[in-house]
Amino acid sequence: MRKLLLITRPQYEPTTHYLFYWNKKVIDFARKKKVDIIDLHRKRANKKEFTSVVVKRQPNLILFNGHGSSDSINGQDDKVLVKTGENEDLLKDKIIYALSCETAKVLGPKSVSMGTISYLGYDEVFIFYYSKDKVNRPLEDKVAELFLEPSNQVAISLLKGHTTREANQRSKASFLKNIQQLSTTESSETYLVRFLVWDMVHQVCLGDQNAQI
């Protein structure tokens, strides 16, 4: 049976604009791996359509990109897609990676307790910097790349068939590589080290550590 990836890509301000474009790399990789893709981008990243797709198609892997809080993940225009106590049961029997602030603090553990196979995400704010002169060309932004290339490694590793534990570890290794490179140079970007460390430390893998899509 072919694997099915569901990805949400809202785009309405700088943060989601960057995630929207950087996740094109994940989509391109998934296509190479012959994984079927449902791309809920821009206005399609809404609760009604998300719910309908999940119920009807039952994706193996869901990748969330956007703003969030400890108990919710948001889509287009900061509208809630999934919220603790309302519809986290939609994530049952699935592997989740949420590139969204704090969702692994409450929503992640609750969804796992209700049957989510594995939940990868952040138990604090996910921080990334970008260059203002690259906003119109986000994939050329070397500052943003320091943060978003490692975060992409979670999804790419899962698509390669690695376990959730391995995906988390590979992503953290990518963060560490960038941290070490910045720490051993006289780059003007060394101030970014503490934020890379923050993201690396607060990226967590909950649930089944040996799960694969």
Give the low-pLDDT segments.
none
Order of H and E elements: EHHEHEEEEEHEHHHE
Strand order of the largest sheet: 2-1-3-7-8-9
β content, as a range? Answer: 15-25%
- What is the terminal separation in angstroms? 11 Å
CATH architecture: 3-Layer(aba) Sandwich
Helix-residue proportion: 25-40%
Mean pLDDT: 97
Number of strands: 9
Question: How would you describe the shape?
Answer: globular
Structural class: alpha/beta
In DSSP terms (H or I, runs of 4 or more residues), the helix count works out at: 7
Give the CATH topology.
Rossmann fold
The main β sheet shows up as: 6 strands, mixed
Briefly characterize the structure.
Helix content is 39%, strand content 19%. With 213 residues, it is of the alpha/beta class. The strands form 2 sheets. Strands 2-1-3-7-8-9 form a 6-stranded mixed β-sheet, with helices on both faces.
Task: Explain the overall architecture.
The protein has 213 residues and is of the alpha/beta class. The protein has a single domain, classed as Rossmann fold (3-Layer(aba) Sandwich). Helices cover 39% and strands 19% of the residues. It is built from 7 helices and 9 strands, in the order βααβαβββββαβαααβ. The chain has helices at 14-22, 24-32, 47-57, 107-113, 142-159, 164-183, 193-201; strands at residues 4-9, 36-41, 61-65, 68-69, 72-74, 80-83, 95-99, 118-122, 203-207. Helix 2 (24-32) packs parallel to helix 5 and helix 5 (142-159) runs antiparallel to helix 6. The relative contact order is 0.14. The model has no long low-confidence stretch (mean pLDDT 97).
